[in-house]
Amino acid sequence: MSDMQKATAALRLANKVVFFTGAGISAESGIPTFRDKLTGLWKKYNPERLETASAFRENPSLVWGWYLWRRHQVSQSQPNSAHFSAPRLALTGRQVAVITQNIDDLHERAGCEEIVHLHGSLSQPKCFACHRGAELTLEEAQIPEEGAMIEPPRCKRCNGRLRPAVVWFRENLPAGAWKEAMRLVKNCDVLISVGTSGVVMPAANIPEIALAAGATVIHVNLIDVSLGGTKELMLIGKATVVLSELLNSIQHLAAPGKA
Ligand SMILES: [Zn+2]
Fold first, then answer.
1. Measured between alpha carbons, how far is 64 from 28 in angstroms, rounded to an integer?
2. Domains and CATH numbers, the chain
3. pLDDT digits (tens, 9 = 90+) for 104-132
4. How many CA atoms lie within 13 Å of 213's alpha carbon, on the beta-carbon side?
5. Do 89 and 8 form a contact (C-beta atoms < 8 A)?
6. Ligand 1 centre distance from Cα of residue 163 (Å)
């Protein structure tokens, strides 16, 4: 049996499925990872120098302008068929959740209902001083120009500067997100890990934690990222292509006990 056939078989028997996603799933929507070299008017900056609390303290307008521009880039992109595979699977009656390392909102826009953002979200700023979440639509924020510095708006409660509620270098994961992720991972039948690099800790441990809890782990990636476990399946290829094939093979099959 091929890994695709085994993956189909595991999914047929599964009631609880968790999608664990990384930059690879959004790359197909045209969203760059920003971890490597920057291009265009941002190319004189090192991303590691823009994604820290000290960078924000030093030059809040530069960092705010950079994130607003990224948020604008995301708003111009559309979720792809890989993002839609989670809500598609939920239609079969299975319990489906998404744990993502991505800070874009493409899973939300694809119609996923249960999403844990391990590294925060670009679309929900918070106060740099009092840490309270704030609401700010992109329209209210103003459409940024590439490379433009923009003074961050102020917190309505304490007048502190708003910052993006994403996890910067050397910061901890958002309170509650890791706990919720662990609850989902330890209780799922199948974990589908899509486009994750396996290097950003502690998120990179998630497939291993799922395996230890007895789940089947299906990796969908451009390269072999399997860890050598017996309940691991490796589907190599583009997430949009691989997940469409996987979903097509089970979409008419209701969750076990719900047929
Ligand atoms: Zn505040």
1. 26
2. 1-30+79-119+173-259 (3.40.50.1220), 32-76+122-166 (3.30.1600.10)
3. 999 999 999 999 999 999 988 999 999 99
4. 18
5. no
6. 10
Q: How far is the CA of 68 from the centre of ligand 1 (A)?
A: 19
* Local structure of 8: helix, strand or coil: helix
Give the Å distance between the CA of 161 and the centre of ligand 1: 7
Q: What distance in Å separates the CA atoms of residue 89 and residue 98, rounded to the nearest whole number?
A: 12
- Active-site residue 219, yes or no? no
Distance from Cα 164 to the centre of ligand 1, integer Å: 13
Which residue in 118, 75, 79, 77 sits closest to 98, CA to CA? 118
Among the listed residues 83, 107, 117, 119, the single catalytic one is 119
Span 141-167, pLDDT tens digits:
777 788 889 999 999 999 999 999 999
d(CA 56, CA 250): 47
Distance CA 218, CA 14 (A): 12
